[in-house]
Amino acid sequence: METENRTRKIQMPFRATEAERDAIFERMKLTGITTFNTYALKMLLNGHYIRLDLSDLQKIHQEISFIGKNINQIVKHVHERDRLCQQDVDDLKNQLENIWQLLKSSLSNLLSLNR
Question: According to the model, what pLDDT value does residue 85 have?
Fold first, then answer.
C-alpha cells in the first residue's frame, strides 16, 4: 500500500563491507547530501568512472630501462678505454629528452581527466 504512492517503486539493495560502508558515508558527508538514497541515486546516475590508460607510463618505464642499460655500457667502455665518448653522452641526452616528452604528454593527459 505504501509503495503505491511512491514514484520509485523498485528497490535495489547491494552488499558492502563495513570499511566500504564507512567510506561511502564519509564521501556522502563531503557532498552535503543527507540521505543515502539520494546520494546513491546521484552517484549511480551521474557519477564518473575513470579508467586510466597507463600505456604511456609503460613506455616511460621501458625508456628508463634502456637508459640504465646504456649507462652500464658507457661505464664499461670508460673503464676499458679510460675515456668517455661524446656520442654516448649525446645518445643519453636524446633518450632523456624522449622520456621528458613522454612524461609531459602523460601528465597533460592525466590532468585533462580532472576537468
Answer: 79
